[in-house]
Amino acid sequence: MNSEYNQSKLLTIEEEVINEIASGYFECRDFFSTYTNKDYEIYTKKKKNFLLSLCMRFHEKFGDFSFLYPVDKSYILKTMKKSYFIPLIVKNGGFEYPKSFVVYFDLIKDINVASVKLPDFTSIDSYFKNFKISEGLNEFFKGFFSRLKKITIPLRKREVDVLKLISDPNFLKIKSDGGFHISPISDRHILEGLSLSNKNLKKIERATTLLLNYKICWYTGVIVNASKFGFYYVLIDSSFPFNDELKPFLFWDIKFSHNEYRILCIPFDSTEELLQGIDYIPLTNWSWNSNMNAFDNKKIDTWENFKTPTLQTASLESSNYVNWDLMSPLQRKYKPWEIHVIKTLSRTSNLSLYSLEELFPDIHVNAIMKFLEEFVEKNVFQYYNSINFIGLDFRIGVRFSIDNKDLFSNFKNSLIMYPIAHLFTNEEEKQGLGFIHIPRNAVSYFLEQIDEFKEKNPDAEIELTFNNFNLLNRSLNLTNFNLDIENGIARYIKN
């Protein structure tokens, strides 16, 4: 009885929280439609007072319900007064009230770092009006973020030029002088990459500020090829039980209509023990692409220039295409501090040389730099971008098995030419699992091509999925692993 009462009380609190967030959303819509960047200096204080009042009202109502927050009460109060938002716990993420939606229609700022035009929020307006609060907070946040990722934010030419450059893996890897990026890309790096003079630096600063503030493009994360230091990537399906011993090594998890496919990243020395009795496919290559060159902000359909690759006859045309060999580990012994650096790399979402210096005060900075440069040069890791709000929200998962060598190659080459693509393959067995981000104007043609390909090649096995991406990592978090790595073999030492 007490349990039922507590559950009922919890649902009531969640319903009240949803109502408060929805109410705050529409108050923000009204406020920011009234006050814009005309005389924005005058309105800045008014904006801060308004946002603080929303936070204070929320905190007065729900401040005592600790299950809503990822931090303690004192930190929430500091965040409210300093940054004008309240952090809330969300399954698989976080929500900052009211910042998570305000950032997209707040024009009370310098016009040069504000969106050239407000995004269309019609679908989100409708969502906040019509959501059934009885479905609870998790479903509420899930639905909000699902709709948010579909909006498109209009960009100026300077922002598009910067976006195209910083989405290029080659630029994120190699400096203009031939060296390797091991600290965050600066505005001056971007200036040089665009071959612009110093007088354009302010334009670059404004463009990167907008892209970062609106979360259109983040380029301080990393992608890590763990095979280089002795890990083994394998593909398994749901015909075998997924036990607790395997969970720490889960890298990808994609559900299809008749199967669920998982990619594991396992210390090579533990392969036999962990995969005993499991039929698995070793993965030999990780191919990925990030290419925004077809994006055109001047067109109504910003992806009109994208030429959909032909599945039957595709040949590689993307200069941004990366192919990592997963079967050629580095043959070296690692010092304890180097293994510590590897663990740090594996979990970082914002790599900074300064943060590594703080972790290893006893190691000279030059040693850290040399180690990281070797890792970038030898395709162990590099900086990676995250792209949002430019019409690439539609994602398709693909599982394929094609016996014909040429057809397999053509099919894979076609997929890798989409603006964002990741494919794991076994080149000998001609098997693959991956996903693509596809412009919406290309979806129907892509699906037609898949049907045609399957009709002409009935022995080819191709499965698609559109929503069930349970997990997609770019790096396996090794923080809690006790590891030894020598001669291309990683050993997992159980505590």
Walk me through what this model shows:
The chain folds into three domains: 2-148, no CATH class; 157-214, no CATH class; 215-495, no CATH class. The protein has 495 residues and is of the alpha+beta class. It has helices at 2-34, 40-62, 73-83, 99-105, 122-130, 137-148, 157-166, 169-173, 187-193, 201-213, 271-274, 336-347, 353-359, 365-377, 405-416, 443-456; strands at residues 86-90, 93-97, 217-224, 231-237, 250-255, 260-267, 281-282, 285-290, 322-325, 381-387, 395-401, 420-426, 431-437, 461-465, 469-472, 483-486, 489-492. It has 16 helices and 17 strands. The longest helix is centred in the first third of the chain and has 33 residues, at 2-34.
